[in-house]
Write a structure and sequence with these properties.
By secondary structure, the chain is α/β, with parallel strands linked by helices. The protein has helices spanning 7-15, 22-31, 47-62, 80-89, 120-127, 130-139, 182-190, 203-208, 219-224, 250-254, 258-292, 302-311, 314-322, 324-334; strands at residues 34-39, 67-72, 94-97, 144-146, 151-160, 175-178, 194-197, 214-217, 233-249, 296-298. Strand 6 (175-178), helix 7 (182-190) and strand 7 form a beta-alpha-beta unit. It is globular, with a radius of gyration of 20 Å.
């Protein structure tokens, strides 16, 4: 018998055992040899935060208190682009993100080619395998160390306030918020929409005031950021699979002893694997809970959207941008695009 878990229930489970008395936490931080900061745009109750907080506690324990990893959710340390820049420069030790890294390492966004991955089996085979290894190696050339396992941000779906999205024609002229990178922007341009870049922290207000008419995000973020309060429809397009690499400043990482690196890597890898399972659990339950909250769901035929992109030259163009080697690795898992 399957058990569905609500976001609140999952948060309670994840939070158990992570919290400690403030005075003890301060004492641990003061005695730690390595004081590290981890920034993320995920909201504080998102599994991508809860599991990293768990990992931080485990790292502290496994290193005998030598490492104090402080986790800053909800873009407290700046937007994703800011945190990515800070991590490259060494002002920030760790952060996780997806799309913004493409401005520095273009192939870093290849996992987000629209309508590429049909299932999670293919996603994890690719990103835990050859394709992920190839991408991580490119980040090593720009001053970053990348942890071996990605966090799951989830398959992205389109939400709207005025009308449901049933086919590509429904996107024509739609003002839709997308992350500020060319892969997302060109995909929605090719589909006839009018993409607009807005920081995630400002998205709720932009939807509420109709600066944009829609947006696209995974269900877990639609829920945790309460975007369903200002959006009526969710089209389960699953148009992009979005994952977050966990980045570390390479100088900071290489300056830590091997035993410290091993403890950090082991626990962050464990956190990523648990977080993936959390998202799968949430995806099973959120359609029901969001429907109860007043959202209307529909599931469009993805092939219609893929054909529009193909005819617009989207895949041909991005194959040239990413290069034959990377594209061949992608198609090893997705099939011909």
């Amino acid at each position: 018998m399957s058990v569905l878990m609500t976001r609140r229930g999952l948060g309670a489970v994840l939070g158990a055992g992570v919290l400690c008395a403030p005075s003890l936490r301060r004492a641990q931080a003061q005695s730690a040899k390595y004081r590290l900061r981890y920034g993320t745009a995920f909201p504080s109750d998102h599994p991508g935060v809860k599991r990293i907080q768990e990992a931080a506690a485990a790292i502290n324990k496994d290193t005998g208190g030598q490492v104090d990893l402080q986790v800053y959710p909800n873009s407290q340390l700046g937007g994703e682009a800011d945190m990515f820049t800070q991590t490259r420069s060494g002002a920030l030790d760790f952060m996780s993100t997806s799309g913004v890294n493409q401005t520095v390492v273009p192939v870093g966004g290849i996992n987000a080619v629209a309508f590429a991955f049909e299932s999670y089996d293919k996603v994890w085979a690719a990103m835990d395998g050859d394709l992920g290894g190839f991408v991580r190696a490119q980040f090593g050339k720009v001053g970053l160390f990348v942890l071996p396992k990605m966090l799951d941000n989830g398959y992205r779906n389109i939400t709207t306030s005025a009308r449901p999205i049933n086919n590509p024609g429904d996107l024509k002229g739609l003002k839709i918020r997308v992350p500020g990178n060319q892969l997302w922007v060109t995909a929605f341009n090719a589909l006839g929409a009018s993409p607009t870049s807005i920081n995630f922290g400002e998205l709720y207000a932009a939807l509420q005031t109709r600066v944009v008419d829609g947006q696209e995000n995974p269900l877990a973020l639609i829920d945790s950021a309460k975007l369903y309060e200002v959006q009526k429809y969710i089209a389960q397009t699953g148009h992009i699979w979005d994952g977050h690499f966990i980045f570390a400043n390479a100088r900071r990482w290489n300056g830590m002893p091997a035993e410290i690196q091993n403890a950090v890597a082991r626990n962050l890898t464990d956190a990523a694997e648990k977080q993936r399972a959390d998202i799968a659990t949430l995806n099973d339950s959120l359609v029901q809970s969001l429907t109860k909250a007043g959202v209307t769901f529909n599931t469009p035929d993805k092939q219609q959207f893929r054909e529009v992109l193909k005819n617009a030259g989207f895949y041909t163009d991005w194959k040239k941008r990413f290069g034959d080697e990377a594209w061949s690795m992608l198609e090893k898992y997705t099939g011909a695009l």
